[in-house]
Amino acid sequence: MPADPHAPVDRHADLAGDRAITAARSELKYLLPRAAYPRFCQVLDRHLTQHHFVGEDANRLPGPEHFVTTIYFDTPTRSQWHAANRDLHNNVKVRAKEYYDEHPALAEIATSAETLVAYRPWLWFELKRRSGERSEKLRFRVSKRDAGQVFEQLDAGAAGSTAGAAGTATSATTSSIGDSERARIVEYCRAIGEPLSASCLVNYRRRAWQDASSSLRVTLDFDVAFYAAPADLWSRQRALSRSTLGTPRGSEPSLVLEVKARGEAPAWLQQALIAAKARETAFSKFLKAGRAVHGDG
What we know:
By secondary structure, this protein is α+β, with helices and mostly antiparallel strands. Helix content is about 30%, strand content about 30%. A hairpin with a 5-residue loop joins β8 (about 195-210) and β9 (about 215-225). The termini are far apart.
């Protein structure tokens, strides 16, 4: 059953769930034909629960469609993109994510397009490390009111001071991970030796399912589109919604399916993937977006 939207927030449970979801795990990606989507979702609904954020500042409005905008960071030489392109299965990505919801059911009573968008006023700053089929994600949360000072320094090119600023800025905000994990992200950013700045953006609609223990999570991403970083990226106070990102530089026509598991995927899921003619892939949103925005270079 879906979580009660009116239930009190258990911040400790929310933190534990976040750590379980982002812990080291196997991660397999597939491209799913759009025609297979309805039947595949029916199978997921029989075995897993649709996952929605219900923690602090959760959206309580009815009928939301969930979206993600991911900001990928790179150096002036695009060292992170080239490293990932050389080895699709062993690489590290530095990124920030914003989650928002749209409410098409409210279109008739909306006074503007912005009133159809609900979002949480923070960004998740993340480091994702992939080793073969295993992945690990570290992250901390940054209030959007503080994001400007953190990421303006990234754009300004002071890699060492940026890493320090990231630690300072987030100390005053709510974080979903421990200090040691945040320190590992800072350490990696310092070790790059070049400044980081926003390189490209990816926007997509997402549906997610997972089991009660967070040991199995399945996500489906629709209408994946790639964008250049807008000039007002760190100064805007509204959501990074698709309609505000300008003209996309490219898109992915298939649905992007990810299976994240601690242990082997269950037989019912493997059978569903075969029936849906899902094609296993090394698809990378970062590589696709970087290529669309900057060219093959």
